[in-house]
Design brief:
This protein has one helix spanning 66-78, and strands at 2-4, 9-16, 20-22, 25-32, 35-38, 43-49, 52-55, 58-60, 102-108, 111-118. The protein is mainly beta and 122 residues long. The protein has a four-stranded parallel β-sheet, with no helix packed on it. A four-stranded parallel β-sheet has the order 2-4-6-8, with no helix packed on it.
Length: 122
């Protein structure tokens, strides 16, 4: 396992095959074939690819790739059959849009906070 402590800042690319724990700052790219844990004190301003990612800190991606990445997520969801969820079954229309609204939430200081919403079919 590789550990980047809270006083470590990396500008560039982190890549490898063993698990990585980040408690410091990484700007750029993270490409791992293993697990990544982003600790509570960490700040990651990077595109992230890893086998499993656990986020306890703050992650910011590349704004220029936002539309492309959202399209990829939508296309993967579009290929999935209807499935049960916390608020009942969710299914997708012919255009791939969710037929239920989406709520984006985060846990902060032990409380759930609403970050945004996406209305069904919009």
């Amino acid at each position: 396992m590789t550990f980047f402590g809270s006083n470590v800042t990396i500008d560039g690319t982190v890549s490898g095959t063993e698990p990585v724990v980040v408690e410091g700052t990484v700007r750029g790219k993270i490409n791992l074939s293993s697990d990544l844990r982003i600790g509570t004190a960490a700040r990651v301003e990077a595109t992230v690819h890893a086998k499993n990612v656990t986020v306890e800190g703050k992650v910011t991606g590349d704004p220029a790739r936002l539309a492309e990445e959202r399209t990829k997520v939508r296309d993967i969801l579009r290929s999935m059959p209807p499935f049960p969820a916390l608020e009942g079954p969710i299914s997708f229309g012919k255009n791939g849009d969710a037929l239920k609204p989406v709520y984006i939430i985060e846990m902060q200081d032990g409380k759930w906070n609403l970050i945004g919403t996406h209305a069904a079919g919009s």
